[in-house]
Each structure stands twice: as structure tokens, then as C-alpha cells.
Design a protein that fits this description.
heterodimer; A: 406 residues; Immunoglobulin-like; 2 domains; 30 strands; flat; B: 728 residues; five-stranded mixed sheet; 33 helices; 9 strands; 60% helix; 5% strand; elongated; STT3-PglB_core (chain B); transferase (chain B); glycoprotein (chain B)
Chain lengths: 406, 728
């Protein structure tokens, strides 16, 4: 579970430029920051207003925290800390911070702070691009996903049964600072919510029922002033009859061939479906008869990979050869690779495969105006696009340059 | 001969392209290993490449023949794996990293190219006409009989063995002609290679001594024979070796004391000694003193033998006697040119021609006995047909009419001078035959022959070209239709003409590989053993290396008995999953129900009291799966596993088996001790999990009945307890 580092890289990298001439323009990969063990975030900020949205529509919860922060110190400050429980920190992925006012600008720099490994709380450090002046306000938009955190209950279901997921979180948003006002919205994928925690009356400020329901959205709060690190555990259990596709490892190779003028991409996937297991064995009869109606299922029966336009010669194989059930649609505007695994991947089942394709190198490579250098611009990741999302445990991207490249 | 050595490479280009094309048709599908045995060879090669030669040699494979294991290193023919391992390492040395799979897939086509070359060399030794070698090489390149074993992905011993066979024969002929110890040594070297590569090596070991023996019996002993044979040196060959020494000695004496009668006397004496020693050999073999021959070889002598004694050998389709159409299918017009070629060999009966004659007689017999041995027949058919065809072409494709004068001149020249530049090939041929004319048959003393009319020349040329064209068409058709589809993948056409690939085997194997514990034991009929080992990477009970008949019979018994009998067998062998092949949905006839009788027969061979083939047939002697199937059939594990839950696919009472074209009983079989774990898309592969013992100690039947909520029947309690497997 080193999803954290990976996804952090992912986003700092996205328009990644790797140079064959050797000057690597990207940031060094070591992003862990080590601080003294008695570290505590200095209380220089306070959250004036905070709205957290937990989106449960995908196979992993996505949190979005919009917060107005105020500098209560006398000096300008530029380091904002966000706490996570140490177990949770490992699962945080796609951490991204932007200024709400200028969302089009690139995300802020973020690091993981490492000080005391035994400590139950760990921090993300967000570095503001410009130090915030005393008593000035700024609106941050922090978003992240928590991977592998949803748990099917019951853990084993029948082939045609619905799946229910449990998500545990705190009604109070994680914060290292005093929060004056906040609320937490939970967006469910549907209206079938089997269980949810009802907080005692009077917890919220307006004295109404907590949570408040509005269609498939529940709102916990608003709450008044809370100290740093305040928590209120909440459990929800809701219907989600979709796969929880987890790529435990992905190796992605991009091979640049100057001779062939070709950019060959190969991706090797080790996948497992973390959805509820089958309580009895797989029945082909049921699968065949029900697939006629195309019902919701926890099984992965196909993967759709949008490729860059101009991709050629795709292949889809596994250890024992070509998987004949793939389809490639390619046109002027799109190139879609539709993969059907050899068998439907049910909960707890694994499937390893590799896909690869070629592309004309000239769309990705240009020569520098000065010197012998070349600039290669390729997507950091492609991969299957599923409506319920795909999570990655470990990603390894290799760029193979031509022999003799410096 | 020397000047024509370059020609084949120029002229042969087109031929080679065709060959390349034909063999690579398989790559329409993909780079994949075919069939069953190649999967094992592939796995062994991977082991060799990973662990090195010595550990390969000591390889004890515990993933097969559970719980026995197999001493693989000592029980296989390593020639193939070592060859591809060597190619792999050489390519790596040249810094060309090639996937070992690609080497294995493409090894057979590469070697078939070499075979064509070897055929060229061999034929060129037999005929003075340069066209004969070329034709033979071209025939060899496209003859379906050989392509069947040399398409890409057919990574089997035969792939390299045929090349070695032909090449060894070439070297032997060469050695014999020149009387050279060098060529003899080369023959021995390739002979050794062949022995390491294919069980069919006994063919060479017996053919070469036989040739030597026949030559002696014909009174054609020569120092050349002595040198070449003694240089290259098995059971019967040892006998000939001794004989040769004897003859050598006697000949030596004869040279001192020339006497015609004495010689004849001695020769007949020698033949008698040889026959007596062969007799002793046979006696010893029968008495079991000398390692007896394996059953496969017995079936070569007596085609009925296997059917009666060793059902396991008879159960393999490759070991069936060849049907007549198969000859034409695999060899096309070569088959009727073949006798003509042999006849031509009789006409110029030199030592090497004797070889072709012996080879063709033996190979024809063997090919008739076993489909598989069609492979050894193909080279000699190509050679002989090429001899015949080149003879015709050389006679008919000469533009100028022959004249009697030139013929007489030639004749006198040939008689007076021993060598001379030949003007035309046909003349040379005639000359060659005329020089030996005095020794050979009278009919071979050829008079002046030649074709005067250009009309007949033209018509023959047209007819021959038509035949050749048809042959090429036939080969292409056969190859692309019969030999190019890897049997793990079935291809069909959708109504709209697009290709639809049925890939159930690999679907199931991949499922096994991914979703079962790494040490799971899979029981299946032995046909699928190698594939499960190679593709699913799981331990199997039996596989295609059918060395232990009893173990196979155990699997056969488990499949053909009632659940109560089978379950203890499964438990005793740690079986986790049982795999069956069922073609009923698709109409795939190569399924386990159709192979079932062999399982029954093999099991009956070991447990005649417990498994009886008769009980699987109805009173009228029919093998049925419908309502009228016998109780033994309906209760057998195989039947239950094949048809379990099959009814659910159809409206009630409408279940049909498309292979056997029969309507199934309204109520499907019930399984107590196994549960369905996976069924592939088209139901070809069905995998069952063996249930663990019941938690509360009930027997499985009552546990299932309880689950279903049905009342415990009185009969269940009265039923006898599960029979215990007799363990030897």
C-alpha cells in the first residue's frame, strides 16, 4: 500500500516532460519531509468556514474540503497542515490543493511530513505559493481519495445479490486548527442507504435532525467552533453493486524507438476485484441468463481504455497468450480499446493481463531548437476508464530511451 | 553436381517463400504453442533456460503425477529443449533478447527449412539430375504430411527429428559412397543427436543396419561399407556389426583365395548365422531377458495388439491405423508417383538406391499401421516422387529430338572412357545405368529411347504442370484448414462472416491459474495434463506422458464410478478440483463423454471387478446419454459432472446434447460430493471443486438433502456406507 507516494507523484507529474538529453525537469521523487519528533503544527491559522463533501459515487470515497483559512499570527505564514490518522495516511491518494479563487492555476506543493512514526497522527504539509499576510483570508480547495477503505458488508454475497459498502469517517473534518464553522456533506451513489449514524440532537448548531437528508445527499452539521483534532465517528452502509477494481500493480513501459519512429507502450496489470466474494461458486447458468438483462453486478466483465488518437496495433494478452475478446475502435477523433477479460472477474478474483500499442513517435517527440536534445511528451498514465473508477496500489512507469541516449 | 549446387538457392527462393507462407499461416491466430505435448516441451524448455542444463537433467517434477511426481530430466528426449535453449543463449550472446516462447513457436518452421535442404542433398545423392533434388526439396517444403508437424507452434520432438532423420540418411549415403570415416563420424554424430531428440530413433537404428545387411546379402560388400558402418554405430545393429566384422574377415580371405563357389557357400552361411542370431534375439526378448520393447512398438507388429492389451495406446487417435484417404490427403499426387520412383531406384540399383527401396518398404508399412508414422513416410515419398518426376521432366523437356547417331556415340564413349562431360542430363542418366547394366536386371539395359514429337512433349509438360499446380493448391488448402488451427482455440464464423474465436480452454486455464491456490491439485483426463501444467500452472494427477497406466486407470475409475466410490479416491489423491470437457452446448465432439469409454476400458484393465464396460451400454448395446442411459452411466461421476445444471439452460424437458444429438432426461443429475466452481463461456470446460468433509460428520448426500430442505428419506439411512477404495 504505497498508493500515497504514487498518486502524489502522479499529480505533480501530469504534464510530465522527460528529456532524452538528460536534464530532467521534473521534481525529485523524494517528497517525504522529516521533522523533529516533538513536532506539532504551529497554531497560526484558523478555519473560518469549512465545507467538506464526501463523494461515494465511485469505488473509493473522494473528499473535497473547501476551507477559508485566516492567518491569526503576526507574521506572514505559508505552511498549512492537514492531519490524517497514520493508518489512513497510507491510503490517501490523488491529494491535490488549489486556490478556490483561481482553480485553473497549478496545484500547490504538498509534502508528507514525517516526524514520529509511532504517532497516531500524521500530516500533509501544504505550501501556499505566496505567504498569507496576518489576518488575511484565503480559500483552499483540498481534494483527495481514500483508497481501499470501503468494505463490503456482508463480505460474501450471491451472484445476483446487491452489494452494500460500509464507510467510516468523522462528521468533523480533519483539521490541525480551530474551526469556527463547518459541515460535512455525504453524496451517495443511490437512495438505498441501509444504515447511517444519527448524531444526538443538539450536536449541530441549528438544533435540527443530524444528518439532514436530501435525496441521495446527507448533510452532517453545521457545527460551531471545534478545537483542532475534534472527531465524531460516523458509519454509513449503502448499496453499491459495482466492482471495486483494484490494480495492485501496474508496470508501464514507454519505449522510444528512433529507428522505427515508434513509441511502443506496454502496460502490465495485476488486478483484483475487492468487491464482495461469491458466497457460493460461480454459476454460468445464472450468469448467462441474467446477463441478458444487463443487471448491476459486482463482476468486471469489460474494461474500456481510451487511447490517444493515432494509436496502432493494440494487443491484449496474458501469460497464456492472446485474449481474443478485445475490440479496437479507431478513428480520426477517438481510439478506444475495449477489453473483455477471459472470465468475468468476481469479488476476490484476480486477473493479470498486459496491453500494448504503438504510436507514431513524431506526435510525442520534438527536437530542441538548440543542441542535440529531444523533448518527449507522453501521458504519465492512461489505463482503463470505468464508471466506478479504478484504484492503483503501485505504479511503475519506465521510459526506455534509445540505446546511447544521454 | 558441383556446378548445380548453387542453383537450388536461386531457384529455390520461390519455393521457400511458399513454405514460409504456409507455415506462418498459423500466425494468423497468434504466436501460441499448439496441441498438448508441445505445452510440456515448452514448460521443460523454460525450466532449462531458467535453471541451466544440469539442474534440468536432475529435474524432479512434483507438479505432475501427484502424488508420485516424475523424474522428468531422465525420462524425456532432451534434444528439442537443448536445441532451443542453445539458440536462446546464442541469440542472447549476440545481444538479441528474444522471448523463449517465440523461439519455441518458430523452431519447427525453421527446422523444416533445414529439412528441405537436407532432402535436396539426399536426393541429389541419388539422382544425377539436378532437378530431382530441387523437386524433392520443394515437395518436402509443402507436403501436408510434414507440415502437419512443422507449423509454427507445433513445438514437438518431431519438429527437429525429421530434419535429423533426413540429414542422418544423407550423411550415411554420403559415407557409404565415399567410404569415408569422416562422413561416417558425422553420421554417428547426427545419429546421436537424433537419439536424444525423438523416440522414433529406433527407425534409424534399425534401418541403417538393415541396409547394411541387405547389401551384404546381395553380395555387395565393399571396404566402403565396412568403413562407414563401423564408424557410425543398438540391439540389432550390434548383430549386424558383428556380422560385418565377420564378412570383412571372410572377404579378406577370399581376396587371397578366389573361388566363386566358396564365396557363395560362405555368404549363405553368414546369412544363416544372422537369421539364427535374430531368432535368439527375439527369443530373449520374448523371455524378457533383454529390455522388452514398449507396447507402442508391439502395436506396430500386431495392429490388434493394443486394442486388446493396452487400451491407453489404442485410445490415442494418432496411434490408429491409417485410413486410405489419409494418404491422399497428406501426400496428394506424390503417393502415386512414389511407386514409380521406387521402380526407378530398382532400375539403377546402386547401394544408395537399395537404401531408398528398404526405407520405402518399411515406412509404407509403418505409415499404414499408425497415423503418426505418416511422418516418416513423407520424406521418402518426396524423394521417390521427385526422382520419378525429374526423370519424366528430363525426358520430356528436352527441346531437340534425340538422334540415333549421337546415342551410339555416347554409348561408345561411355564404354571407352570412364568420365566425360555429359551433354545432356538424360544421356548422363542413361550412361550411368548402362555402366551398371551388366550387373542389374536385363530390363534395365535401355535401348535408344527419346521423344520425337513436340506434341507429346507439350502435352506431358502441361499435364505435369497442372498436377504440380493442383498439388500446391491442395497443400495450401490442407494446411490452412486442417493443420493451422491451434487446438486450444476453436475458430468459427459468425453469420456476418467475421471470425469468432472460441477460447474456452484458455479461459478456464487462466481462471485456474489466477483464482485457485497455487498448490491446488487438478484431476482431469490425461489428455489435458500437459496443458493444465503449462497454462494453468497447477499440479495434475495424470498427463500426456502416460508412463503409469495404473495411475491413469485410477483417474478413469474415479470418473466412471459412482460418487460414493469416487469421493474416497479424490480425497486420497488430495484432489481439489476436477476438470471435465463438455461439448454438448456447442456440439464440440472431442469432449470427455466421447472419450469416456476409453476411461472405462483403461480402468477395467486394472479393476475388472469394479468397472465394467458392458454396464455403460444399454441392453441393445447402445452408448446413450438420454433417458435410456444405463444406471451405471447416469451415476458415473463423468456423466454427472458433464450434465450437472445443464437443464437450467433450456426450457423444462427440452435439454439437448448437440454432440450426441439426444434429448436429456427431464431431471438433471445431482451432485453431492462436488460443487460447480467454474464453467467456461461455451461450457466446454467445467471445473468442480471437491467438497471438504462435512462439518457435522454427515455424509454428503444427506447434507445436500438437508440443505435442500427435503425430508430425510428412509432409504438414505438404509443405503450401504461408502465403499472404501482398495489401495494396493
Amino acid at each position: 500500500m504505497r498508493s500515497l507516494t504514487i498518486t502524489a507523484i502522479l499529480f505533480s507529474f501530469l504534464p510530465s516532460i522527460l528529456c532524452s538529453s538528460g536534464s530532467n525537469t521534473s521534481q525529485p521523487l523524494n517528497s517525504r519531509l522529516i521533522l523533529p519528533s516533538n513536532f506539532k503544527p504551529p497554531q497560526v491559522f484558523r478555519n473560518v468556514n469549512l465545507v467538506r463533501t464526501i463523494n461515494l459515487e465511485k469505488a473509493y470515497p473522494r473528499d473535497m474540503i473547501n476551507v477559508i483559512i485566516e492567518n491569526i499570527d503576526k507574521k506572514p505564514q505559508d505552511e498549512y497542515f492537514l492531519p490524517f490518522e497514520s493508518g489512513l495516511l497510507e491510503k490517501v491518494g490523488a491529494f491535490e490543493v488549489r486556490d478556490k479563487k483561481t482553480p485553473e492555476r497549478e496545484g500547490f506543493l504538498v509534502d508528507i511530513v514525517e516526524y514520529d512514526l509511532q504517532s497516531p497522527t500524521q500530516f500533509y504539509r501544504i505550501r501556499l505559493p505566496e505567504p498569507l499576510k496576518p489576518s488575511a483570508h484565503q480559500t483552499l480547495s483540498i481534494s483527495y481519495s481514500i483508497l481501499s477503505s470501503l468494505r463490503p458488508v456482508p463480505a460474501a454475497i450471491n451472484q445476483v445479490d446487491k452489494q452494500y459498502l460500509v464507510h467510516l469517517f468523522s462528521a468533523y473534518s480533519p483539521s490541525a486548527y480551530v474551526t469556527l464553522k463547518q459541515k460535512t456533506k455525504v453524496k451517495f451513489p443511490g437512495t438505498e442507504i441501509k444504515e447511517y449514524t444519527v448524531l444526538p440532537k443538539g450536536t449541530n448548531t441549528d438544533g435540527s435532525e443530524d444528518p439532514q437528508k436530501q435525496g441521495s445527499t446527507f448533510t452532517y452539521g453545521p457545527y460551531g467552533e471545534l478545537p483542532a483534532g475534534a472527531q465524531e465517528p460516523v458509519k454509513v452502509r449503502y448499496e453499491f453493486t459495482k466492482p471495486l477494481l483494484h490494480v495492485s500493480a501496474l508496470e508501464r513501459d514507454l519505449e522510444v524507438s528512433h529507428w522505427g519512429g515508434n513509441l511502443a507502450t506496454e502496460e502490465r496489470y495485476w488486478t483484483i476485484n475487492k468487491a464482495a466474494n461469491l458466497s457460493s461458486h460461480f454459476s454460468r447458468v445464472t450468469w448467462q441468463t441474467t446477463s441478458y438483462y444487463n443487471p448491476a453486478t459486482v463482476a468486471v466483465s469489460s474494461l474500456k481504455m481510451p487511447l490517444l488518437v493515432g494509436s496502432l496495433n493494440p494487443y491484449f494478452t496474458d501469460e497464456i497468450g492472446n485474449v481474443s475478446t478485445s475490440r479496437f475502435r479507431s478513428g480520426v477523433r477517438e481510439a478506444h480499446l475495449e477489453l473483455t477479460p477471459r472470465y468475468p472477474i468476481f469479488g476476490g478474483w484476480k486477473y493479470n493481463f498486459r496491453v500494448g500499442w504503438d504510436a507514431d513517435l513524431k506526435n510525442f517527440l520534438r527536437k530542441l531548437k538548440a543542441g542535440d536534445g529531444y523533448v518527449l511528451k507522453v501521458p504519465f498514465m492512461e489505463g482503463p476508464k470505468q464508471s466506478e473508477g479504478v484504484e492503483y496500489g503501485k505504479v511503475e512507469v519506465r521510459v526506455i530511451l534509445p540505446e546511447g541516449a544521454r | 553436381m558441383a556446378n548445380s549446387a548453387v542453383d537450388p538457392f536461386l531457384q529455390g527462393t520461390t519455393g521457400r517463400n511458399t513454405r514460409g507462407l504456409l507455415r506462418l499461416i498459423i500466425l494468423w491466430f497468434e504466436s501460441i504453442i499448439h496441441e498438448f505435448d508441445p505445452w510440456f516441451n515448452f514448460r521443460a524448455t523454460k525450466y532449462l533456460v531458467q535453471h541451466g542444463f544440469y539442474s534440468f537433467w536432475d529435474w524432479f517434477d512434483d507438479r505432475t503425477w501427484h502424488p508420485l511426481g516424475r523424474v522428468t530430466g531422465g525420462t524425456l528426449y532432451p534434444g528439442l529443449m537443448v536445441t532451443s535453449g542453445a539458440i536462446y543463449n546464442v541469440l542472447r550472446l549476440l545481444s538479441m533478447p528474444v522471448d523463449i516462447r517465440n523461439i519455441c513457436v518458430l523452431l519447427a518452421p525453421a527446422f523444416s527449412g533445414l529439412t528441405a535442404l537436407a532432402t535436396y542433398l539426399l536426393t541429389s545423392e541419388l539422382s544425377p539430375s539436378p532437378s530431382a533434388g530441387l523437386l524433392a526439396a520443394a515437395f518436402m517444403g509443402i507436403a501436408p504430411g510434414y507440415i502437419s508437424r512443422s507449423v509454427a507452434g507445433s513445438y514437438d520432438n518431431e519438429a527437429i527429428a525429421i530434419f535429423l532423420l533426413v540429414f542422418t540418411f544423407y550423411l550415411w549415403i554420403k559415407a557409404l559412397k565415399l567410404g569415408s570415416a569422416f562422413w561416417g563420424a558425422l553420421t554417428a554424430l547426427f545419429y546421436f543427436y537424433m537419439v536424444s531428440a525423438w523416440g522414433g530413433y529406433v527407425f534409424i537404428t534399425n534401418l541403417i543396419p538393415l541396409h547394411a545387411f541387405v547389401l551384404i546379402a546381395m553380395g555387395r560388400y565393399s571396404p566402403r561399407l565396412y568403413v562407414s558402418y563401423t564408424t557410425c554405430e543398438h540391439m540389432s545393429s550390434l548383430g549386424v556389426f558383428g556380422l560385418l566384422q565377420l564378412v570383412g574377415f571372410v572377404e579378406f580371405i577370399r581376396q587371397q583365395v578366389p573361388s566363386k563357389q566358396f564365396q557363395t557357400l560362405l555368404q549363405s552361411l553368414i546369412v544363416a548365422i544372422f537369421l539364427v542370431s535374430v531368432g535368439i534375439l527375439v527369443l530373449l526378448t520374448v523371455a524378457g531377458v533383454i529390455a522388452p520393447w514398449s507396447g507402442r512398438f508391439y502395436s506396430l507388429w500386431d495392429t490388434g495388439y493394443a486394442k486388446i492389451h493396452i487400451p491407453i495406446i489404442a485410445s490415442v487417435s494418432e496411434h490408429q491405423p491409417t485410413a486410405w484417404p489419409a494418404f491422399f490427403f497428406d501426400l496428394n499426387f506424390l503417393i502415386w508417383l512414389f511407386p514409380a520412383g521406387v521402380y526407378l531406384c530398382f532400375r539403377t540399383l546402386k547401394d544408395e538406391h537399395v537404401f531408398v527401396v528398404i526405407y520405402s518398404i518399411l515406412a509404407s508399412y509403418f505409415a499404414g499401421v499408425m497415423v503418426r508414422l505418416m511422418l516418416t513416410l513423407t520424406p521418402v515419398v518426396c524423394v521417390a516422387a521427385a526422382l520419378a518426376l525429374s526423370y519424366i521432366l528430363d525426358t520430356y523437356l528436352v527441346m531437340d529430338s534425340p538422334s540415333a547417331e549421337a546415342y551410339v556415340n555416347d554409348r561408345t564413349k561411355a564404354n571407352s572412357t570412364t568420365s566425360g562431360a555429359a551433354t545432356s542430363v538424360s544421356v548422363q542418366q542413361r550412361k550411368a545405368s548402362s555402366s551398371t547394366a551388366s550387373e542389374s536386371l536385363r530390363s534395365t539395359q535401355d535401348p535408344l529411347i527419346g521423344i520425337y514429337s513436340s506434341k507429346s512433349k507439350l502435352s506431358i509438360a502441361v499435364v505435369i504442370s497442372t498436377y504440380l499446380l493442383l498439388f500446391v493448391l491442395h497443400c495450401t488448402w490442407v494446411t490452412s484448414n486442417a493443420y493451422s488451427s491451434p487446438s486450444v482455440v476453436l475458430a468459427s464464423r459468425l453469420p456476418d462472416g467475421s471470425q469468432h474465436i472460441i477460447d474456452d480452454y484458455r479461459e478456464a486455464y487462466q481462471w485456474l491459474r489466477q483464482n485457485t491456490p497455487n498448490d491446488a491439485k487438478i484431476m482431469s483426463w490425461w489428455d489435458y495434463g500437459y496443458q493444465i501444467g503449462g497454462m494453468a500452472d497447477r499440479a495434475t494427477l495424470v498427463d500426456n506422458n502416460t508412463w503409469n497406466n495404473t495411475h491413469i486407470a485410477t483417474v478413469g475409475k474415479a470418473m466412471s464410478s459412482r460418487e460414493e466410490v469416487s469421493y474416497p479416491i479424490l480425497r486420497q489423491h488430495d484432489v481439489d478440483y476436477v476438470l471435465v470437457v463438455f461439448g454438448g452446448v456447442l456440439g464440440y465432439s472431442g469432449d470427455d463423454i466421447n472419450k469416456f469409454l476409453w476411461m472405462v476400458r483403461i480402468a477395467e484393465g486394472v479393476w475388472p471387478d469394479e468397472v465394467k464396460e458392458r454396464n455403460f451400454f444399454t441392453d441393445r448395446g447402445e452408448y446413450r446419454v438420454d433417458d435410456e442411459a444405463t444406471p451405471t452411466m447416469k451415476n458415473s461421476l463423468m456423466y454427472k459432472m458433464s450434465y450437472y445444471n445443464y437443464n437450467a439452460l433450456f426450457p423444462p424437458g427440452q435439454a439437448r446434447d448437440r454432440v450426441r444429438n439426444s434429448r436429456l432426461p427431464a431431471e438433471g443429475p445431482r451432485l453431492n460430493t462436488l460443487e460447480e466452481a467454474f464453467t467456461s463461456e461455451n461450457w466446454i470446460i467445467r471445473i468442480y471443486k471437491v467438497k471438504d468433509l462435512d462439518n457435522v460428520g454427515r455424509d454428503h448426500a444427506s447434507a445436500v438433502a438437508f440443505e435442500k430442505g427435503s425430508r430425510k428419506k428412509e432409504t438414505t439411512s438404509k443405503r450401504r456406507a461408502a465403499r472404501v477404495l482398495r489401495v494396493e
